[in-house]
Design goal:
Elements: E1 2-3, E2 6-7, H1 8-22, E3 24-29, E4 37-42, E5 45-46, E6 52-57, H2 61-68, E7 71-78, E8 83-94, H3 97-103, E9 120-134, H4 139-152, E10 160-165
Parallel strand pairs: 1-10, 2-10
Antiparallel strand pairs: 3-4, 3-7, 5-6, 6-9, 7-8, 8-9, 9-10
Length: 166
């Protein structure tokens, strides 16, 4: 696996592409306590500044956690495409109706009573740093590379990993 550390615009572009491909994050709060509080969250959008947006219920445990400490860790994982990203940053709860209207769509009716639901909030996650693992080859090619490495003892490049300075 080769290493490529990314900075600024390249990091933001790669982050956006990977998050948009994977969509569901394990959203971790209470980072200073054990056990962490972790829930799956569906990404609504990655904006042009690189902020990641979610919708959330105001009465949820993670919203309550964010009021105590905004530090948040997002873990995205897609074993099928061999893409993984861990993003650290801070989150804030947004109640601006224009933002809620922009992020909301009919699929969200499973959790909310429309975009005017008084319990509806948005979470704006601002990333600070990230680590990623990405395999651009398909799984079959990766399997053969791993098998060849096991037989020959040679290192095989099976993807890219690195840190992102956001």
């Amino acid at each position: 696996m080769s290493t490529e550390n990314l900075t600024s615009d390249k990091a933001k572009s790669t982050l956006k592409d990977m998050v948009n491909d994977i969509k569901v994050a394990m959203f971790a709060t209470r980072l200073n306590q054990q056990p962490l509080s972790v829930v799956p969250m569906h990404t609504k959008e990655v904006d042009k500044e690189g902020n990641i947006w979610f919708l959330s219920r105001n009465d949820s445990d993670h919203n309550s956690d964010l009021l105590k400490s905004p530090e948040t860790q997002l873990l995205y994982s897609d074993p099928g495409s061999m893409k993984f990203i861990s993003v650290y940053g801070t989150s804030e709860i947004i109640t601006d109706q224009a933002v809620l209207d922009d992020l909301y769509d009919s699929k969200d009716n499973a959790w909310f009573d429309g975009e005017k639901d008084p319990n509806l909030t948005a979470i704006k996650f601002t990333p600070k740093e990230a680590a990623y693992w990405n395999n651009d080859s398909n799984k079959l090619i990766t399997f053969f590379k791993l098998q060849a490495a096991a037989v020959t003892g040679d290192n095989k490049d099976i993807g890219t990993s690195g840190k992102m300075d956001l």
